[in-house]
Amino acid sequence: MKQFIDSYFDRVADRLASIDRVSVERLIEALGRARSSGGRVFVFGNGGSAAIASHFSADFGKNVAPDERWRFNIVSLTDNTPSLTAYANDMGYRHVFSEQLKNYRLKSNDVVVAVSSSGNSPNIIEAVRFAKKKDACVVGLTGFTGGELRLAADHCVHVDYSEYEVVEDLHMLILHMAVSYFKQAAALAGIGHFHAI
Questions:
Q1: Strands, sheet with 155-158, edge to edge from the N-terminal-most edge strand
Q2: Average pLDDT of the segment spanning 155-159
Q3: Distances (CA, A) of 142 to 13, 19, 53, 115
Q4: Contact (CB, 8 A) for 120 and 148
Q5: Going by CATH, does the domain composed of 27-188 fall within 1.10.10.10?
Q6: H-helix or E-strand containing 138?
């Protein structure tokens, strides 16, 4: 068991070291531009990536700063079960995210964060294509070869690995890093943090 644990930690550390730091900067900059311009952030994914999207939305919505001027207007498109099931049932699963983006009247100062290990999920690509038509900024988090999402995104943080668990671990780490960055920026600006009770 020790050998397995050591091997897993080594794989995560190795893949973390290989991530392009500039791509992480671009993700953080895109999020910052959305907030400063009054834009919104929409995040989504499937399966484990859906859980990452929900977690990211919760952290960005609550943890960055208590002052509403510094908060992000962020929505996880994975969290409205009635909408997801209605679109999936009536139009097909590939439309569950793009149709929600239409409801929000996506604008050019909005940011779409698509989380997909394969980068090829049809519903992810459908939403990304719609976002591009609206000139919204598309940020991708990918693994494996990156798929179509890696090519379509304006900015992409890519984990070059073919093990879902490792890829998803690093996607979550990257998004936590972004949360931590904006929390620190808020603290330096004298905005302060929420305190857990």
A1: 74-76, 41-45, 111-116, 137-142, 155-158
A2: 98
A3: 17, 11, 13, 6
A4: yes
A5: no
A6: strand 137-142
Q: Which tokens sit at 175?
A: 């998004």
- Quick check: 175 and 165 in contact, CB under 8 A? no
How far is it, in rounded angstroms, from Cα 161 to Cα 149? Answer: 15
pLDDT cut 90: percent of the chain above it: 86
Q: How far apart are CA 91 and CA 84, in angstroms?
A: 10
Please give the Cα distance from 16 to 114 (Å, whole number): 20
Residues making up the chain, counted from first to last: 197
pLDDT at 197 over 60: no
> How many other CB atoms are found less than 10 A from the CB of residue 173?
13
For the chain, the domains span 27-188
Q: Which segments within 24-122 are labelled E, that is strand?
A: 41-45, 74-76, 111-116
Report the C-alpha gap between 189 and 183 in whole angstroms.
10
Q: What is the DSSP code (8-state) at residue 25?
A: H
Residue 123 and residue 11: Cα distance in Å, rounded? 29
Cβ count within 10 A of residue 132? 15
Written as six digits, the tokens of 22 are 């500039």
Q: Quick one: pLDDT band at residue 162, thresholds 50, 70, 90?
A: very high
